[in-house]
Amino acid sequence: MRCPDCGHTTSRVVDSRGTPEAAEIRRRRECESCASRFTTYERVETAPPMVVKRDGRREAFDPDKLRRALRTACRKRPVSADAIERMVTRVTRVVGAFGEREVASEAIGRAILQELADVDEVSYARFASVYLRFESLADFETLLEQRGG
After folding, report:
1. Is 110 among the domain residues?
2. pLDDT in 10s for each residue of the chain, 149 residues
3. What is the distance between the alpha carbons of residues 113 and 121, in angstroms, rounded to a whole number?
4. Sign of CA dihedral 67, 70, 75, 81
5. Contact predicate 115/122, CB 8 Å
6. For the chain, which has fewer Cβ within 10 Å, the N-terminal or C-terminal residue?
């Protein structure tokens, strides 16, 4: 690891700690040349799975796209930004837990619906209306009946 101050390539680890979710390791380092201290983060880098769309197209899984979809569903609802980030994290973990190189978009949609069902009913209905391709009021009525409402 190159020192950000002097550019020297040798440093020693002074302190090492895991992050709360154990997703990465935080290391405090000290440059052996200038004694400057800096922090590095170490995490496993994995290739994102490919999402297989309904029409057969494939694209890389993108947590930012997931985040935008959740923000849209939760717009003007009492759902905090932190709650959205927690949902993004959980859905991303679910996608990673499949352990597959390709994941059907339907599986991701079901995971999102499950998260929204636990957070906000209106956001759930908004997302469901797009994801399940609602075409009439009867589709909303069916959703309400399935949810016990």
Report:
1. yes
2. 789 999 999 999 999 988 766 678 889 999 999 999 999 988 776 778 999 999 999 999 999 999 999 999 999 999 999 999 999 989 998 888 888 899 999 999 999 999 999 999 899 989 988 888 888 888 888 887 787 65
3. 10
4. negative
5. no
6. C
Domain carrying residue 117:
50-147
Contact 84, 67 (CB under 8 A): yes
Verify that 135 and 67 share a domain, yes or no.
yes
Tell me, yes or no, whether 37 and 69 share the same domain. Answer: no
User: Do 56 and 83 fall into the same domain?
Assistant: yes
| Same domain, yes or no: 54 and 37 | no
**2 is a domain residue:** no
Query: Mapping DSSP to helix (H, G, I), strand (E, B) and coil, where does residue 121 land?
Result: helix
Report whether 32 contacts 10 (CB < 8 A): yes
The token duo for 123 is 């956001």
Query: CA dist 92 to 5, 49, 85, Å?
Result: 36, 10, 10
- Same-domain status, 140 and 100: yes
Residue in the block written with tokens 């859905």: 91
Sign of CA dihedral 85, 91, 92, 97: positive
